[in-house]
């Protein structure tokens, strides 16, 4: 995919209250390399299979599904909020879901549409923030590594919760605000070029307790918190939440 094709497909970024213009611009500049496993999003490519493994387990557990099925989300709708260029949205579609995917950077949405079309996937891509799905609900709502980039995390989480249909599932991931995440994600990864400079603002990271409180305020219960850490061979689930973590939540009784 060339830069020209991305530019041609790009539309003006939509102003929504949850979107931080500088964040959208930062990630929009990375759009052309999003699907390059060796490019600026290389760490996301390494992270994505681990996130998918967690997500698949949460889906199977919540709906009591056969974990051998290739299409566990058949008949269900899914929202990927903060989708980038579709690294998670495309697997959700392959799992059978009717996928809506939203990103603050229109450049990312343009790349995502072209990539999905080239693989015969039908995904409803939209540019904007959580406001882009106001009034709509989905069986599964995902937002991975996004809440730390929005203008008002509490309002953002409330918007995600409002988008979850009755009986649905909310899954999020985000870096923890610890000394280890500061060293690993900001001081090391960005300085060494593993993550583009300016990607993270450590002060905006949320602890599991802080995120759980926001989820509770939105009328949901966190039913699982799992650490996402770096092992000898890459990212692994379980163990410490000091670097990053995933949460699963359902509507409170």
UniProtKB/TrEMBL annotation:
Alphabetized InterPro entries for the sequence: SAM-dependent_MTases_sf, UbiG_MeTrfase
Binding site for S-adenosyl-L-methionine: 51, 82, 103, 144
Enzyme Commission numbers on file: 2.1.1.222, 2.1.1.64
GO BP annotations listed: methylation
GO molecular function, one term: polyprenyldihydroxybenzoate methyltransferase activity
Spans traversing the lipid bilayer: none
Record's keyword annotation contains Disulfide bond: no
UniProt KW keywords: Methyltransferase, S-adenosyl-L-methionine, Transferase, Ubiquinone, Ubiquinone biosynthesis
Keyword Transferase part of the UniProt annotation: yes
Pathway(s) of this molecule: Cofactor biosynthesis; ubiquinone biosynthesis
The protein's name: Ubiquinone biosynthesis O-methyltransferase
Naturally occurring in which organism (per UniProt): Sphingomonas endophytica
């Amino acid at each position: 995919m060339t830069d020209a094709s991305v530019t041609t497909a790009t539309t003006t970024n939509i102003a929504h209250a949850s979107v931080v213009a500088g964040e959208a611009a930062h990630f929009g500049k990375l759009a052309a390399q999003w699907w390059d496993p060796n490019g600026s999003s290389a760490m996301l490519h390494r992270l994505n299979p681990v996130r998918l493994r967690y997500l698949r387990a949460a889906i199977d557990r919540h709906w009591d599904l056969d974990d051998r099925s290739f299409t566990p989300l058949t008949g269900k709708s899914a929202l990927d909020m903060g989708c980038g260029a579709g690294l998670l949205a495309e697997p959700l579609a392959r799992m059978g879901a009717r996928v809506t995917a939203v990103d603050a950077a229109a450049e990312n949405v343009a790349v995502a549409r072209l990539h999905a079309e080239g693989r015969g996937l039908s995904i409803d891509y939209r540019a904007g923030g959580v406001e882009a799905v106001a009034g709509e609900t989905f069986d599964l709502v995902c937002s991975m590594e996004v809440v730390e980039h929005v203008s008002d995390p509490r309002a953002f989480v409330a918007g995600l919760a409002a988008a979850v249909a009755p009986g649905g599932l909310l899954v999020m991931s985000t870096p923890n605000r610890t000394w280890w995440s500061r060293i690993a994600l900001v001081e090391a990864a960005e300085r060494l070029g593993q993550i583009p400079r300016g990607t993270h603002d450590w002060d905006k990271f949320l602890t599991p307790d802080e995120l759980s409180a926001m989820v509770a305020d939105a009328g949901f219960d966190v039913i699982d918190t799992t650490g996402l850490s770096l092992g000898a061979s890459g990212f692994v689930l379980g163990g410490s939440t000091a670097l990053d973590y995933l949460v699963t939540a359902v509507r409170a009784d």
